[in-house]
Amino acid sequence: MNLFQKFRDGLRKTQQKLSAEIKRIITRSPKLDPDALDELEATLIAADLGVGMATQIVARVREAGTPDVLAIARQEIERELGVATRELIKAPRPPTVVLLAGVNGTGKTTSTAKLAHYLKEQGNTVLLAACDTFRAAAIEQLKIWGQRTSCEVVAGQYGADSAALAFDAVGAALSRQVDYLLIDTAGRLHTKMNLMEEMKKMRRSVEKRLAGAPHEVLLVVDGTTGTNALNQAREFHQALGVTGLVVSKLDGTAKGGIVVAIARELKIPVKFIGLGEQLDDLQPFDPQQFAAALFAEG
Ligand SMILES: Nc1nc2c(ncn2[C@@H]2O[C@H](COP(=O)(O)OP(=O)(O)OP(=O)(O)O)[C@@H](O)[C@H]2O)c(=O)[nH]1
Ligand SMILES: [Mg+2]
Predict the structure, then answer these.
(1) Alpha-carbon distance 166 to 50, whole Å?
(2) Would the CB of 10 count as within 6 Å of ligand 1?
(3) SS3 of 188, please?
(4) Which of 42, 150, 219, 273 falls 20 to 30 Å from 87 in CA-CA distance?
(5) Whether the CB of 109 sits within 6 Å of ligand 1
(6) pLDDT digits (tens, 9 = 90+) for 219-232
């Protein structure tokens, strides 16, 4: 399946809702009178594209005076987000260390596994670190993913110091000469200062073991939580210096436009999007393909 088809399938809920609503608006008012344009704006906002993006699309539709809303929306999104795929940062010398962070249940562990799968498909060796030593069964969960992806997992005991474990995991990645080390961490609310401090400590301890690491700090946000994801991203970024976002669970929502709002409002690139629960459901974010899939006919 090509990337467009994957995006298309994963974003089906959002796409179908947008397409049906837009069709209804145009059928009722082919010349798009002011009421219809207001309705169009509300429809775009309801898909979580953000007020700014929605206003911009509606302004262009008004100017153009054509009912080809889908094409205009695609163009505007592409223009806003650019066309390039955002690649994962690679260390000048292996291992590349990737730290995954986020609030509880956003999809960190699953995304860690999917990312391992993605990197292995490209011929890399990958080591996983189970630095969620807090939640019951978190270590076993990552070990199962390790088996499924044929990746070794560095793990400790529950209650162990996650910063010390991350330090050791970097050491293991160095001595085993793997290409990538992916560090799964415990879910934490961005408003809980002590937990954010713990995360900062983990970051520092990774850097202490290997200068320049972590090369990527990926924040995993749940795409179904709408604008909450934006607030989380701001807080985590301030504390940790987030280098990229993973927006998960876009297959489970009709509000997939949130990716556009996030990419537009934060100066942090969306690197991957999660479109399902299987290993190959994490896709590099390609704004052009995304826009085409979101505003497709039918
Ligand atoms: N539909 C769908 N489900 C997803 C996606 N990503 C993760 N999930 C599901 O979301 C649930 C939580 O995923 P986890 O990876 O355990 O989340 P987590 O952030 O590690 O959770 P904690 O470690 O408890 O904070 C699981 O049931 C996953 O299968 C996705 O892209 N689409
Ligand atoms: Mg987890």
Answers:
(1) 37
(2) no
(3) coil
(4) 150
(5) yes
(6) 999 999 988 899 99
